[in-house]
Each structure stands twice: as structure tokens, then as C-alpha cells.
Amino acid sequence: MIPTYFGMETFLGGREYRTIPSIRSTSVERIDEETISLRYHGTRVVDYRRDGTFVLRSGGWHTVTTKSRINDFSPARLYQQNFNWYLGVNGERVDFEDGMVIDGNGKPVTHDESAVSL
């Protein structure tokens, strides 16, 4: 099951920050009242928004593990072909961009330029 904002809020249990013990270098942090973030090595790879959308980021680290964290902790289905990352949506291929916003079905909604470098 894919975590949601409310699922991550429950996981935090009132804390602002919590590591995920069984998953190396991965933690969950409350950013503000509208956003909870999954971090991998300090990079906010998935933001969970209260409105049910997700912001995806690689932080420039196009690694197998970064891609795995995004795939495992969001509705996104990223894959790599010829060194480029793509989001698979209903059989279509969409170029992955840091800061892209997707809905609960993994469909791109928009691109949040302010979220790229976080």
C-alpha cells in the first residue's frame, strides 16, 4: 500500500522527524502543516501533501536506490531507459522532472518549480 499524507502523519506519531529503522538512510520529516517529506540521504525524494498530491525529486541523484524510494513510497512508476528517467502513466511515457507533482494515481498534475531544489 502506498503511504499518504495521513499515513505518514500517523507514522510520525506527533514527532517532527523519524527514521525508518528497517530502511537505510531513509527518514520522514514534517515540513509544515500541509507537507510531510520522505528523505533519502537528506534529499526530499517524495513530499506528501495534505491535498493528496505528491512532489517527486531525485536531487540530481539518478540512482537505483533513489528511484526505488520514489517507486516504493509514492504512486509513481519510474523506470530508466538509455540513462533517462521516465514516469509510466497508463501505458504512456512521461519525462521525469525534479519537482513534478502527481496525483494519487501517479498521473502528473503540474510541475512545482519552487520544489525542485529542496
Can you give keywords for this protein?
118 residues; alpha+beta; three-stranded antiparallel beta sheet; 2 helices; 10 strands; globular
End-to-end span in angstroms?
Answer: 26 Å
> How many distinct domains?
1
Q: Tell me the radius of gyration.
A: 13 Å
Strand arrangement within the widest β-sheet reads 1-2-3-4-5-9-10
How much helix is in the residues? 10-25%
Q: Helical element count?
A: 2
Structural class: alpha+beta
Which word captures the global form?
A: globular
Order of helices and strands: HEEEEEHEEEEE
Strand content: 35-45%
Unreliable spans are none
- The tally of strands reads 10
- Tell me about the biggest sheet? 7 strands, antiparallel
